[in-house]
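Task card 7
Instruction: Convert sequence to C-alpha coordinates.
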Amino acid sequence: MLKRTQARACIECGLAYGHPEFSYHAGRSENGPSYWSDRGLLCSHACSVAHFERRTREGEPMTEPAPNPLEQDWS
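Output:
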Protein backbone atom coordinates (compact mmCIF):
# COMPACT_ATOMS: atom_id res chain seq x y z
CA MET A 1 0.00 0.00 0.00
CA LEU A 2 1.23 3.48 -0.76
CA LYS A 3 2.22 5.68 2.13
CA ARG A 4 -0.12 8.66 2.31
CA THR A 5 1.15 12.01 3.58
CA GLN A 6 -0.81 13.54 6.45
CA ALA A 7 -3.30 16.22 5.45
CA ARG A 8 -1.45 18.76 7.61
CA ALA A 9 2.12 17.92 6.73
CA CYS A 10 4.79 19.23 4.38
CA ILE A 11 4.16 17.89 0.89
CA GLU A 12 7.91 17.67 0.20
CA CYS A 13 9.35 16.03 3.32
CA GLY A 14 6.31 14.96 5.37
CA LEU A 15 7.14 17.01 8.49
CA ALA A 16 3.92 17.36 10.49
CA TYR A 17 2.26 20.75 10.91
CA GLY A 18 2.73 21.59 14.58
CA HIS A 19 6.29 20.25 14.75
CA PRO A 20 8.71 22.76 16.33
CA GLU A 21 10.84 22.83 13.15
CA PHE A 22 7.89 23.76 10.89
CA SER A 23 8.08 27.42 9.75
CA TYR A 24 5.13 29.55 10.82
CA HIS A 25 4.24 33.07 9.80
CA ALA A 26 5.93 35.43 12.29
CA GLY A 27 7.15 32.33 14.17
CA ARG A 28 3.72 31.48 15.68
CA SER A 29 1.70 28.41 14.72
CA GLU A 30 -1.60 30.24 15.22
CA ASN A 31 -0.57 32.58 12.37
CA GLY A 32 -0.42 29.67 9.92
CA PRO A 33 2.39 28.31 7.77
CA SER A 34 5.02 30.50 6.16
CA TYR A 35 5.03 28.49 2.91
CA TRP A 36 2.42 26.68 0.83
CA SER A 37 1.42 25.87 -2.73
CA ASP A 38 -1.79 24.89 -4.46
CA ARG A 39 -0.92 21.26 -3.59
CA GLY A 40 -0.43 21.71 0.16
CA LEU A 41 1.75 22.99 2.97
CA LEU A 42 5.53 23.39 2.91
CA CYS A 43 7.53 23.34 6.15
CA SER A 44 10.49 25.53 5.24
CA HIS A 45 12.22 27.70 2.69
CA ALA A 46 14.27 24.68 1.59
CA CYS A 47 11.15 22.59 0.90
CA SER A 48 9.52 25.54 -0.85
CA VAL A 49 12.48 25.84 -3.23
CA ALA A 50 12.61 22.05 -3.75
CA HIS A 51 8.87 22.02 -4.54
CA PHE A 52 9.26 24.90 -7.02
CA GLU A 53 12.19 23.22 -8.75
CA ARG A 54 10.46 19.83 -8.90
CA ARG A 55 7.32 21.31 -10.44
CA THR A 56 9.39 23.22 -12.98
CA ARG A 57 11.26 20.02 -13.95
CA GLU A 58 7.94 18.15 -14.26
CA GLY A 59 6.56 20.89 -16.51
CA GLU A 60 3.85 21.93 -14.02
CA PRO A 61 4.97 25.30 -12.63
CA MET A 62 2.53 27.36 -10.61
CA THR A 63 0.91 29.99 -12.80
CA GLU A 64 -0.85 32.00 -10.09
CA PRO A 65 -0.63 32.47 -6.32
CA ALA A 66 -2.04 29.62 -4.26
CA PRO A 67 -5.07 30.30 -2.06
CA ASN A 68 -4.57 30.87 1.66
CA PRO A 69 -4.30 27.41 3.30
CA LEU A 70 -6.14 28.62 6.39
CA GLU A 71 -9.22 29.19 4.22
CA GLN A 72 -9.19 25.61 2.80
CA ASP A 73 -10.05 22.15 4.06
CA TRP A 74 -6.90 19.99 3.55
CA SER A 75 -8.47 16.78 4.83
